[in-house]
Amino acid sequence: MSHKHGKDWSEIKSNDSWAIFKIMAEFVNGYENMSRIGPSVSVFGSARTQPHNDFYQKAVNISRMLGEKGYGVITGGGPGIMEAGNKGAQEGGGQSIGLNIDLPFEQSGNQYIDQESNLKFDYFFVRKVVFVKYSQAFVVLPGGFGTLDELFEALTLIQTKKIARKPVVFIGKAYWSGLIDWIKNTMLAEGNISAEDLNLFKVVDEEEEAVKYIDDFFKTHSLSPNF
Questions:
Q1: pTM of this structure
Q2: Nearest residue to 83 (alpha-carbon basis) of 122, 123, 43
Q3: Tens digit of pLDDT for each residue in 41-89?
């Protein structure tokens, strides 16, 4: 490596150290704002889902029912399933929280987020911590890599007991069946998870079933901070 390259590399590393303050500020801002919300449920799913899609309406319905039962709804703040979640929350009279991520495409805060609960993040990992820290349950509708990222983060923390057991509900048996089969027939068969880990989530088709699963869970478990 030439001297020039070495100098460039050290400057980059120095900038990395200063970035820690920006990261800390984002955590502090997120924690301060989210500490004011009541018990809430995260609704995950694709930003690309259009309003005419069945899953958009399912997200609206689930979130409305959760709002009617007194839960807030936390989404990623963007379009698609996230918009549907916030829309349903407002229809049901629940808090409607959006955790926006600054992206070069497809993400801008949707119109159904409560003004005081519209947060913006630069870092995916800070946003994901805030998602998990303040969620009492996780509703997972069809989505892409981001949805899977958030889903497996939650399952990992529950599996390893870093957070208390929380309901995780997949919506759409047909959509998720390939992944669930692979988890059972490959991941479990290889011994990379335990049989009881399959009990950490439930797969349903109907909105009422998802809401009942969450509501029933908290008849025997307390609503509590995650960490």
A1: 0.91
A2: 43
A3: 999 999 999 999 999 999 999 999 999 999 999 999 999 999 999 999 9
Local structure of 116: helix, strand or coil: helix
> What does the pLDDT read at residue 85?
98
**Residue 213: HSE in the Cβ half-sphere, 13 Å Cα cutoff:** 23
pLDDT tier, 16 (very low <50, low <70, confident <90, very high otherwise): confident
Give the pLDDT confidence score for residue 109 in this predicted structure.
Answer: 81
Query: What distances in angstroms separate CA 18 from CA 13, 14, 89, 118, one per listed residue?
Result: 9, 7, 38, 26
Query: For the range 20-29, what are the long-range contacts, defined as Cβ-Cβ under 8 Å and sequence gap of 24 or more?
Result: 22/122, 23/123, 23/126, 26/121, 26/122, 26/123, 26/126, 27/126, 27/129, 27/130, 29/119
39 neighbors 72 (Cβ within 8 angstroms) = yes
- Give the DSSP letter of residue 173: H
CA 127 – CA 133 distance, rounded (Å): 10
Give the ranges where 54-206 is alpha helix by DSSP (H). 54-68, 81-91, 124-133, 145-159, 173-182
Kindly tell me if the per-residue pLDDT of 10 is higher than 80: no
Which residue matches tokens 């694709």?
Answer: 46
What gap in Å lies between CA 145 and CA 90, rounded to an integer? 27
Q: Are 154 and 122 in contact (CB under 8 A)?
A: no
Query: Quick one: which of 58, 60, 61, 70 has its CA closest to 94?
Result: 70
